[in-house]
Specification:
Blueprint (H helix, E strand, L loop, with lengths): L8 E3 L2 E3 L6 E5 L7 H14 L3 E5 L3 H13 L5 E4 L7 H4 L5 E4 L1 H5 L7 H14 L3 E7 L5 H6 L11 H17 L5 E6 L3 H14 L5 E3 L9 H14 L6 E3 L10 H15 L15 E4 L10 H12 L9 E5 L5 H4 L5 E5 L4 E5 L2 E6 L4 H18 L1
Parallel strand pairs: 3-4, 3-10, 4-5, 5-6, 6-7, 7-8, 8-9, 9-10, 11-12, 12-13
Antiparallel strand pairs: 1-2, 13-14, 14-15
């Protein structure tokens, strides 16, 4: 499956864009400071066919661990996710082939500095050490200024798409003005409809920029693969997209499934095999759960996601969204649009109803309270 006619971006030995075959990526689901486990998973993902393997870095200790991972897995093209620590760019750039930053997270640090100055700082580090960049924008973590500026710009079912697209265009402009062209852009959401719309808009405005496609927090199988397939079929068949990541909630030792499913979807699209969405999909119970990645602070998160799905089986005919997030980076914002949201800290789970905080519960207690809130929502809607 070949990608778009954008310019090419080299990421180590991988080439993204320019009409070459679409590159499938994944992200390590281990704590970065657990060097042995992270190196083992990076090696496994590379062997499974991952053109790029991403690792998260959020501290000086993570940087030191990343150096060891790089030494143990020299064959993999490594990308680093800067999380909320853009100042680490100069330290990680010598160790990786690509740097990913999120404009929304960039906004919150060193507020006295402009977003442009911070983007230029990352670009300078990438240029100095022969790295590519990914500008990674998520609907759920667009910076507050952009959210306010474009509030009301979209119909309800596409809320947030304009802010996401404009943020991506703005940061692409920053890198252009800095003379840095070796970058790709991603525009992600847990709703494939928003992913499709956002990427089509960006591609129309900037067809020269390679696009990294993905449905963030796609969830567990089979729904996670279905949501992702919907987005990829609509975009890649229209000539939009150059590299993909399938974000699934799976046990850490099964992260290779993201590569397998990504390759299967690409093969099907390339050969004209398109699969219809099951009847009722998108209008019944929707469980959003993020991919197990190196940001997860407690492995129990994955087991909790599966328990949530099992416990809520009785409500599967109700149009209710439950989000299960594994970390403090995506958790608070990404759960706002769900009817019920859980975001997991190391020793407790924060439970939300919409944007309302309901409190922190132990991993054992939270399912009981979740059931009560779910029943209350169902009863309220039936009485309305």
């Amino acid at each position: 499956m070949k990608g778009s006619a954008s310019r090419t971006v080299k990421v180590g030995s991988a080439t993204i864009g320019g009409g070459v075959p679409v590159v499938v990526q994944s992200m390590c689901a281990t704590r970065t400071q657990d060097v042995a486990a992270t190196a083992e998973q990076a090696r496994m993902l590379h062997a499974a066919g991952a053109g790029v393997v991403r690792v998260a870095v959020d501290s000086a200790k993570d940087v030191a661990a990343l150096a060891e991972v790089r030494a143990r897995v020299p064959e993999a093209n490594l990308a680093v996710d800067l999380q909320e620590s853009y100042r680490l760019a100069t330290r990680v750039a010598p160790l990786v082939n690509k740097i990913r930053y999120n404009p929304g997270h960039l906004y919150h640090h060193d507020r006295e500095k402009s977003a442009r100055a911070k983007a230029e700082f990352i670009a300078s580090a990438a240029d100095r050490y022969d790295c590519a960049i990914r500008i990674g924008v998520n609907c759920g973590s667009v910076d507050p200024a952009s959210q306010e500026r474009f509030a009301g710009a979209d119909p309800p079912h596409l809320e947030g798409v304009t802010a996401m697209v404009e943020s991506a265009l703005e940061h692409a402009g920053y890198l252009d003005k800095a003379g840095f062209e070796r970058y790709v852009v991603s525009l992600k959401d847990s709703d494939p409809v928003k992913v499709i719309e956002g990427n089509k808009r960006f591609a129309a405005a900037r067809p020269d920029v390679p696009l990294h496609l993905g449905v963030t927090e796609a969830g567990m199988l089979p729904d996670g693969a279905i949501k992702t397939r919907v987005a990829f079929e609509q975009l890649l068949s229209a000539g939009v997209g150059d590299t993909v990541r399938v974000s699934l909630t799976v046990p850490f030792e099964e992260k290779w499934r993201e590569i397998e499913i990504g390759n299967q979807i690409l093969e099907d699209i390339d050969e004209g095999r398109f699969r219809s969405v099951p009847r009722g999909f998108g209008t019944s119970l929707n469980i959003i759960s993020c991919p197990s990645c190196s940001r997860v602070e407690n492995d129990t998160f994955v087991h909790l996601a599966f328990k949530v799905r099992e416990m809520t089986e009785y409500a599967k005919s109700h149009d209710i969204t439950i989000a299960v997030m594994g970390c403090r980076v995506n958790g608070p914002g990404e759960t706002d649009d769900a009817d019920l949201g859980l975001w997991c800290a190391p020793t407790f789970v924060n439970l939300k109803r919409g944007k309302e905080e309901l409190g922190a519960f132990s991993y054992d207690e939270v399912l009981v309270r979740l059931r009560l809130e779910l029943d209350d929502i169902i009863n309220a809607r039936q009485d309305a």
